[in-house]
């Protein structure tokens, strides 16, 4: 059974940084485009960053220049470095394939507040 276990969230002040990590127990992880999604209270889940199997990346406009997605195929892990965090980044963050193929994990809460 495939499991996605997100970690690394927390409470941070505006302008701060966090690094999220998601090991994925998925066979042939290296062939799947992976993404980080987030869901803020009262809003739909949205894709904020994605990375192809060969390392190409794409970002939601509001996080460009602040977030960096990366993957380690040897460790079946996808990460998200988040810098210059803003209150609008507050959400539960999830990883999954792009498009979504797997059951969602529990996510990790990111709260940006002074």
Account of the protein in words:
The protein is an all-beta fold and 114 residues long. It contains no helices and nine strands. It has strands at 10-12, 18-23, 34-39, 46-51, 57-59, 67-72, 77-82, 91-97, 108-112. Strand 3 (34-39) and strand 4 (46-51) form a beta hairpin. It is globular and about 40 Å long. The chain starts with 9 loop residues before the first strand and ends with a strand. The model has no long low-confidence stretch (mean pLDDT 95).
Distance between the termini: 40 Å
General form:
globular
Number of helices: 0
Strand order of the biggest β-sheet: 1-9-8-3-4-5
Total strands: the figure is 9
Mean residue pLDDT: 95
Structural class: mainly beta
The low-confidence runs, each spanning 5 or more residues with pLDDT under 50, are none
Sheet having the most strands: 6 strands, mixed
Tell me the strand percentage band.
35-45%
Assembly level: single chain
Helix content range: under 10%
How are helices and strands ordered from N to C?
A: EEEEEEEEE
**Rg, alpha carbons:** 13 Å
Task: Give a quick set of tags describing it.
three-stranded antiparallel sheet; mainly beta; 114 residues; 0% helix; 9 strands
In short:
With 114 residues, the protein is mostly beta strands. The chain is built from no helices and 9 strands.
What is the element layout, followed by pairings?
Elements: E1 10-12, E2 18-23, E3 34-39, E4 46-51, E5 57-59, E6 67-72, E7 77-82, E8 91-97, E9 108-112
Parallel strand pairs: 1-9
Antiparallel strand pairs: 2-7, 3-4, 3-8, 4-5, 6-7, 8-9
